[in-house]
Design goal:
350 residues, alpha+beta, Hypothetical upf0131 protein ytfp, 2 domains, 5-stranded antiparallel β-sheet, 10 helices, globular
């Protein structure tokens, strides 16, 4: 594994200069073409909080070379896992939402001190590449948020007392959001309960590894480690996962392959391909909701999670009894599914 040296801390002068920044139109990234050629010395302060905290993703896969970085707290935002992914494989991905008072106490919702992350100083060209690799400008809005430098401490302050600065971040609010003028136009698949899905162990590890690499406060790292991940717990789910991915992964792989081949110099895919991708993901989730979830079991949350017990659990059915019932109906369920879905080949790993 490649070892990455942390970038130097962002200077106070650069943080102060951010106060005059303005959001950019991510769907019209042409602004970068002139800016990159005429303002080569200009940089962007970019807030990362998900998998981009991890060097393996941010520097390795995306190839970004930050000029400086600083750990921050963003009181106006909160971490969510409400971006729909792929059932049974990657149920959801990290996102941010406007912070509002709530009483949720499930593992993903127990953090109430605002969004913790890292602000990277990157070149305009690198910021264009970040936008391209996060959906080519069609999946997110660019917004400016007030950030506060985190002091070196094991805990996160509830109310920061330092002076704020501005940073850009990519924001994908839900289409049914009540976040006023930030209602989504991104076309993302919106799930009925944004807090329901659990991230995969692979994806959450990228975030927790990144938090450790960036030396985020131990209190926040403990919170990340306490988040429960999605796990297949029954034979029926395992069969459902195999059938589901055999059907949909070749289609999704084709979409991503076309996106790589047809992207322009700024990494953006054609608009028709973005629309096709939205249709494919919508169809995928519709098939999960209408067929697979009922036949094979939950593909978003670990079945038997103590924090979200099923009605049967509440009436005393033990996990072992439920597994016995699943086994009894396994052959019948699989026979029904196989008569409708006959994949020609196994899926590739995501």
């Amino acid at each position: 594994m490649t070892a990455f040296t942390p970038a130097p801390q962002t200077s106070q002068a650069r943080l102060d200069a951010s106060l005059t920044d303005r959001p950019v139109d991510t769907e019209a990234v042409e602004w970068l073409q002139e800016a990159v050629s005429q303002e080569k010395a200009k940089t962007v302060l970019y807030l990362a909080y998900g998998s981009n905290l991890c060097n393996e993703t941010f520097r390795g896969v995306r190839g970004i070379r930050p000029l400086s970085q600083v750990n921050v707290l963003v009181p106006s935002l909160r971490l969510t896992f409400d971006l729909a992914g792929i059932p049974y494989k990657e149920p959801c991905f990290a996102n941010s939402a406007l912070r509002t008072p709530d009483t949720q106490d499930y593992h993903k919702d127990r953090w109430h001190k605002g969004l913790v992350g890292v602000v990277y100083e990157v070149t305009l060209a690198d910021y264009a590449h970040i936008i391209a690799t996060e959906g080519g400008g069609s999946a997110y809005h660019d917004i400016l948020v007030d950030c506060y430098v985190l002091p070196r401490s094991k805990t996160v302050p509830s109310s920061p007392d330092s002076q704020p600065f501005k940073a850009h971040t990519l924001f994908a609010p839900l289409s049914a959001s009540s976040d006023s003028d930030l209602a989504s136009t991104t076309g993302r698949v919106a799930r009925p309960d944004p807090s329901y899905a659990q991230p995969s162990a692979r994806y959450l590890k990228l975030i927790s590894d990144g938090a450790a690499e960036c030396s985020l406060p131990a209190e926040y790292q403990d919170y990340l480690h306490d988040i429960r991940t999605y796990t297949v717990t029954s034979t029926r789910q395992a069969i459902g996962k195999t059938v589901f991915l055999a059907i949909w992964m070749p289609i999704i792989a084709l979409i991503f392959s076309l996106s790589r081949k047809l992207q322009d110099k700024k990494g953006r895919a054609p608009s028709w391909l973005a629309k096709l991708s939205a249709v494919v993901f919508t169809g995928m989730w519709m098939s999960y909701d209408s067929v697979f979830k009922g036949l094979f079991g939950d593909g978003e949350r670990t079945m038997g999670d103590e924090a979200m017990r099923t009605e049967n659990d509440g009436h005393g059915m033990s996990h072992s009894s439920r597994r016995d019932a699943e086994k009894e109906s396994l052959l019948e369920a699989f026979a029904e599914a196989s008569s409708e879905f006959r994949p020609s080949r196994r899926s590739t790993e995501w």
